[in-house]
Structures are given as C-alpha cells and as structure tokens.
Amino acid sequence: MEQFKIHPLYRIHDLDSLMTSLWDFYRTRFLSLFIISLVMSLVTQYSVMLVDIKELQGIKDPAEMLAMLRSKMLPLAGLALLSLLFGTILHYYIFIKPLDEEINILSVIGKSFIYFIPYLIIMILFVFAGSVIIVLGVLALIVGVFFAALYLGMISFFILPVLMAEGPDIGRAIARTLKLSHTNFWQNIGWSAVIILIYLVLSMILSGIIMIPFAGNFLKTIFNPEGATEAFGTFFNPVYLGLSAMANALIMPLLPIFSFILYFNGRAREEAGDLTAPGDNETGNKVKVEDLYAKPENDKI
Prior knowledge:
Number of strands: 0
Structural class: mainly alpha
Helix content: over 70%
Largest sheet: none
Radius of gyration: 25 Å
C-alpha cells in the first residue's frame, strides 16, 4: 500500500477536496486523457455505425423488432465488451500513470488485460444482482428505482480500483468492493449522486451545443413528422459523430477519476484507522478521575 500513497488522489477527502482533486488531476493530465478518450470515442462511434441500428427506426411491428434485435445480439454484445475494455484501459491509465511516469500507452493497454477478464466476470454477476435490486426498487415506486440505480452506480465505482490496487482475485475484489463501498455509506452515496448529476448536466450541455448545427433537421420534423427517419440519420452523420466523440472525450475521464477518489478515500480512512492501536478509543483516550487532581507529594518522589 505504501506505493499508492504517492498517488495524487490518495488522501482522506471531504467534498471540497474531492472536487479540488478531481479538477486538478483532470487539468494537469487533460491532454493525454482527452486524446485517449477521443480515440476510444471514435472507435466506439464507428463500431455503432457498423452495427447499423438505423434499421430499427422504421420497424413498427414488435415481433419484427425483437427478431431484428436478436439478429444483432452478437454485435451489441461486442459493443458492450468494447466499452468495458475501454473503461478498464482508462481506469488503469489513471491509476498507474502517476505512479510510473515512464509507462507508455501500449504498456497500459497490455497490462489492462490482466484486470479485464476478472472485471468482465464481476460485471456479469453485478448485472444479475443489480437486476434483483432494481426490481425491489420498482416495488418501492419511483424513488426506490432512483435510489437502487444510484446504489448500484456507487458500488460499481469501486470495482476497477479494487482490482487494480489489490489484485485481480475475483472473490477478494467482490468482498473488498462491498466493504469499502458500505463503509461511510451515506458519504459515498451522496458524493456519487453529486458527481453523476454534474456529469449528466455537462453531458446535456455538450450535447445541446453539438446539436446546434443540425437543429434545422429536427425542426423539420415538427412540420413534417414523416421526416423523422431522416432526422434520426443525423446521428450517423460523420460531422456529428466527430463532434459527439470530442464532446464525449471531454467528460469521459471524470467518472474514472472519481472512482479512484472514492477508493483512495476509503483506503486512506482504513489506513488511518489501522494506525490506532486496538482499544485506544475505549480506554486509552479516556480521562481518569485521578488525572484531574494533583498527585500527592509522596507519589512524585
């Protein structure tokens, strides 16, 4: 654990230091984070074009739509795997680069695969467990659904940092993720809610900005609803895809940086707790009655 203490995100945080650390890390490593995120976004956008989900736009028959989705199940699964892989690479870069400034991106990509398979297995298990939690949230109506989603999101932030900092043992990673995420539970939930909200707001603002050049296509659909298919095609316009990739690259690093802030905050608090000898909080720091009075002269000799 000693080597992790030099990581700029390692410390006991409050909300103010969380925001400061996130911004400082993002700002100081902006260029590399942006380039990596941009390449990932462009590859993802191109992969989505290859899947060609535009075909679903004109289908109105539910049975036909389900059949179409089944035919594209393999490509969609490939997109999900690609997203998980890119997430692993970006997380590992954020984790290892401050600890080893000499490491290059090819080494980062290669070493990321050590954690990719365990991460994939954990995420598959996480999806099944998360489905149950979401169902329970539905039973608690809308508030329950939002809280369940936030709860799952908060836990997911810890998974990759735990794997990368403590080793790719799946069982241990699950146990440590649950322990760290549920320690200071309400703080973790609150911080996650704040960061996710900021991320969504930034995403909507950037999406609105890049849609400005194409606003005419969508305004036409108000007067000509039959042109909706043409407007939908805007999302596959090369210019739009490029702008969208750039916008996505601006905010993509935020959540991985935050995930390590959450993890290192938990580890730093845990480490600080380990420095206190067992029983200190129970007896060692208590004031005894006799300590309030001066000792007799005979006792001082």
